[in-house]
Amino acid sequence: MTIAPTTALTLQDMPDCDHARLFLFAFRRMGAHGLNDAVAAHAMLRAFGTAYRRPLMLMRALMDDIATHTGATIAIAPCCFARITHAEAAMLTVVARVEREPAAAALLLADLLGMRRPEGVLASTASVAAAFADAGRPIGRG
User: Fold this and answer.
1) Which of 6, 31, 105, 130 makes an SS bond possible with 97, Cβ 3.0 to 4.6 Å?
2) In angstroms, what is the C-alpha Rg of the chain?
3) Looking at the domain assignment, is residue 117 inside a domain?
4) pLDDT in tens, 106-122
5) Greatest pairwise CA separation for the chain in angstroms
6) Number of structural domains in the chain
7) b or e along 84-98 (b: 16 or more beta carbons within 10 Å of the residue's beta carbon)?
8) How far apart are alpha carbons 52 and 15 in whole angstroms?
9) Domain limits at 59?
């Protein structure tokens, strides 16, 4: 029995929300090129203006927490790719739900990261979501 390559990594459509796309772009850039990626920092500067520091630093902290505490590989697509992986879709769902449905977000994040107690990473995720929302760019999944 053989498995077709498309079933190993099925992809979803890019979210309609521009703020979710910005989060996803920074997530992909920092995941692929490191926390100090200048392109991700520039994207945050252009989106948030002079108030870019808080979302950028919290995004870096989130990426560091994910890299430090994950027990699984998180599939990320290249930045130019117009579709998202299931792991990226799960992360966007966690960020969108962390304020309203923290229990559901914690369960999804635990499954994504392969860990039992994701409270630390969930707190970082909530901080990023709050930073985006406080700057007038709330992240929605749709």
Assistant:
1) 105
2) 15
3) yes
4) 999 999 998 888 999 99
5) 56
6) 1
7) bbebbbbbbbbbbbb
8) 22
9) 13-134
Side chain identity, residue 121: V
Q: Phi/psi at 79 (nearest 5 deg)?
A: -60, -35
Per-residue pLDDT band for 10 (boundaries 50, 70, 90) equals low
- Residue 4: pLDDT band (50, 70, 90) is very low
- For 50-70, b/e burial (b = at least 16 CB within 10 A) is eebebbbebbbebbebbeeee
SS3 83: strand
- Helices marked H in 34-69 — which ranges? 38-48, 53-69
Q: What is the pLDDT of residue 6?
A: 42
User: Is residue 84 a contact partner of residue 20, using CB atoms and an 8 Å limit?
Assistant: no
Global confidence as pTM: 0.88
For the chain, what is the mean pLDDT?
89
Euclidean distance between CA atoms 65 and 70, whole angstroms: 8
Outline where the chain has alpha helix (H).
5-8, 18-33, 38-48, 53-69, 86-97, 102-113, 119-134
